[in-house]
Each structure stands twice: as C-alpha cells, then as structure tokens.
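Homework-ish question, so no full write-ups if that breaks the rules, but can someone show me the predicted structure for this set?
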Amino acid sequence: MNEQAFIEALRLLPAHPAARGLADDCAVIEIGSETLVLTHDMLVEGTHYLPEADIADVAWKLVATNLSDLAAKGAEPLGVLIGHMLGRDDERFIVGLNEVLAHYQVPLLGGDTVAGTGTRTHGLTAIGRATCTPVPARSGAQPGDVLWLVGKVGAAMLGFEALRDGTGADHSAYSRPLALLKEGQALAPLAHAMMDVSDGLLLDAFRMAEASEVTLAIDGAQVPVAAPERRLACLTWGDDYALLAALPHGTQPPCNAARIGTVEPRGFAPLFVDGEPVLNAAGLGYSH
Amino acid sequence: MNEQAFIEALRLLPAHPAARGLADDCAVIEIGSETLVLTHDMLVEGTHYLPEADIADVAWKLVATNLSDLAAKGAEPLGVLIGHMLGRDDERFIVGLNEVLAHYQVPLLGGDTVAGTGTRTHGLTAIGRATCTPVPARSGAQPGDVLWLVGKVGAAMLGFEALRDGTGADHSAYSRPLALLKEGQALAPLAHAMMDVSDGLLLDAFRMAEASEVTLAIDGAQVPVAAPERRLACLTWGDDYALLAALPHGTQPPCNAARIGTVEPRGFAPLFVDGEPVLNAAGLGYSH
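A: Not a homework solution, just the prediction itself:
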C-alpha cells in the first residue's frame, strides 16, 4: 500500500472523519478553554537525510520540522515526545537534541527508545497551545486574499548540494532549518489560511489551493529565492520551512514577508505560476 | 549507546529535569485548568511482536499499550497520533487500528506515514486528560499502604506460547491486550501510587519501590495468575497490562482488585517476594 492509499483508507474509518492531522497537517483539539495543536512527523535515514549525516543535525531537524508545523498554526510549543531508535552516534543525537530544544526553549516531555536494525527512523510528537482561535488551516484561503511568503526558498537545496558534494559551503539551511514560530504567531490572527512550505513552494501552494477550493496565482519573480539563477528549482525544492499565508486584501503582515501572489476564484487549474496553469501536482515538489 | 545510558543522558539535559515521561512513564503537563497526560510508545518487529504476527493485532496492541499508560494515570483518552512505517499487510493494520479505536471510542487525530526497509517500527502517541489531580505517579507509594492488583498476570505468556507453538489456543491476552481505563479512573483519586504492569509484575513493582523509596512486600500466593502451576513465570512475564496500585490502609478499591502485598519503610531491599529480598532488577522481568 502506498502512502496516499494508506491515508485515504484511514480517512474512511467511520470514527475519524476529522483526522486531518494525517500527512502534513496538524491535529487541533479543544480542551477546557484551550485549543491544543499536535503534530507527529518522522524522519527516515536515506529518505529524509543522507546516511552519512551528522546525527546531531538529524535531531535538530526532527524537532524543527515539527515545530514548523506548530508555527503554521500560530501555536506556542508546550513540549515534545521522542520516539528514538538507538543506533550510531547516539551521543551526537543528544547534543543536537539539546541544542534545538534550548534554542526554542521547549521541554522534552518524554517518549520511548527502542533497539532496531535496518533503516533508522526517528519520530517526534510536538504539542502546542493555540495563541489565537480559530487556528488557521490550509483550507481557508478566499478569493481576493493576497499570498505572502515569510522566509525564502532554495537555501535548503543549496545546503543539501553542499553536503552531498562536500564543497564545504554552509549547509545549515538544509541541516538545521528554523521554525518560524514568532512569525507564525504574529500572522495567525490575521491569516485566512497558513501552512509551512516543507515540500516545495509550488507543491504546497497547490495543496492550499486544493484544500481551499480556490486558485492561487503566484508571481515567481516576487518569490525570495536563495539562487536567483535557478529560480524554478528553488520554487520546487522542499525543506525550507518558510510560511505561506493568505491574508485579506489590504492587511499588512506584522513581520517581514514578500507578496508573492493572489487568491482567485477556483478556475480550471488550482495553481497559476507566472500566468501558466498547473493542472496537477506531479513534479511540483517533494512528495514523501 | 544502550537504552539506559541514552535515557540517563537525556535526563541530564539542563532544560529537562522533569522529563519523567521517558521510558515507561507518562508526561503530565498543565494547561489552563486542565491537566494533560501524554505518552509515546513504540513497537518493533521481532522485539515486541513475532515477524509472522497478524499486523491487525500489532495495531491493536500499539494503541492498547499506550492507552494502558493513560489508564495508570486515571486519564481519559482524547486521541492518538500514529507514526506508521508502510509495509506488508497495511490493510490488516488499518482493520486492527479501526477495531481498537472503535473499542475504546478514541479518535485518530493524525500522524505521519513513511516508507522504510528493514526492521519495521510502529510509533504511537496518546494524549489524555486527567480525571483527577494530582495525577498518580509510580513514585507516591507510602509505608503503610496496601498493594492492589487489578487484572491478572501470566495470561499474555500463555497467549504468546500458543502463538509461538501454533497450538490454536486463545492468544488474545497477548495479541489484543486490554487497557484498564475505567479501573484506572476509579482508582486514581484514591491511589498514592499507580502504574501499569507492562514488563512483569516483579520488575514493575521493583521500579515502583525504587521510585517511591520504599520497600514493597508481595505475597506471591495472593497474585491472580493465569497459570497457577507456573506462578513465578507469571510474576515475571510482561505484556499483561494489569494495574498495580498502592492505596492507603483501609481504603477499599472501587473495582475488582486483589490485595497482593504491603508497602513498608525502605529496608535493605526494594522488594520482598514471599519474605525473600530482591536486591536488583536483573532477571525480574522484561527490560526493553
């Protein structure tokens, strides 16, 4: 069974019509007067990181990518639980874990460790509290909204290539991405829709368009990219953890952000890039 | 690095003195007027289940063992997030997942799916709300308390053997354990200490004694066992998910429970079984 089929089958379970927290989105639950946001993401050796990667970087990325999911909801992290398969360089894993948790001032609440062989997998659950309600979803974009991007795309691509090719260039954008928690919290009360850009700007924009049943029109030249001479690659590479937000027309973002497009009524294509229609998601970015 | 060393190293992280939710215990956090209980446990092919096991049973056990952690805190489940490595018989996994979630009326909130090769691992995070505070911990047993066991031990052992040997006998106690949520909620307001018996009664009692800095004295003959002719094996085998609770002297448990011992001031051994001192945990049960 492939991932899509598995998720579709899960969504058909009668008791769980609202399991929107599968795949990339977060779960949102209300308890008492609070709204909780939960996410669980995994990293797999060979799929999400190079087998020779510094495991400290893997620990960083594991936490940062989950916190990025919370950022897209404007949530404030309460803590993380780790699912750790013991393996090489566990001491380095703990170093990286400590660094990322200290950076974000997020406590390690608990988790589990197991022995295993073969492909190493790392799981992390992050829990946060919403700082505003309703919590923005990827499904709320409305015609007339303006699309904003916080952060730039393509830097992770350059970092990955530096690591892969051993050039010695800075690879921190790939190996130690940052979760834009403050920016997410600032945007959440204003945004009709928001998501983090983990799998490539165009693919994630396509997903927002599909979820919101609108058409997104992106002006590629306005997107902040790390490598202007490779703009299309930057627009389709993932791992940058920028934030994509749809704000009502006339609303200025309360943080640094680039205006990269507009939200239109649903046309024949979910996405237009520089006026060209994109009819399906194949090849737009990184599906995993 | 082995598991114990890894956990000890994590506990030394300056920001996380209270990461008691590592290994078998739950994390407890307060938010607003509510107290949340979180746990994340993993199952590993070959370690926690037979490679030829019905994957539907693995899904059941993955959920039930995490709910059992919540039961030991008297918590009411709010939902689960799953970390799923795709593999053989995913359709069966979904069948078992649906059955266990329906049985406990617990929603699937979200999670992640990944492709992987080699040893298959399954992760699950369960979140619950405490039904009483303070939430009972394994560290609260006090001299003078009486030790009670809800459920019996040894049935999972017989189930495992039936599966392993292909005898055709009932193996549901091993493959589809039950989480004693109602019993945990009934006991929590009364218990000085409580935990679920996942790794063997004697090992878990030893852990309660160490955490509480007391001595537990267990009368082996009073422990409800599934195989009286193999009493010691029943006391040391895991996977039964009974509840072990220390109640104040004179307090009657509000559910079916067996009185199996007493809590004494800390003596030279953490645990006495039928008057014999047990000085260390080696060989007492299943450490993983």
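Now go work out the reasoning yourself. Hint: Chain B has a mean pLDDT of 90.
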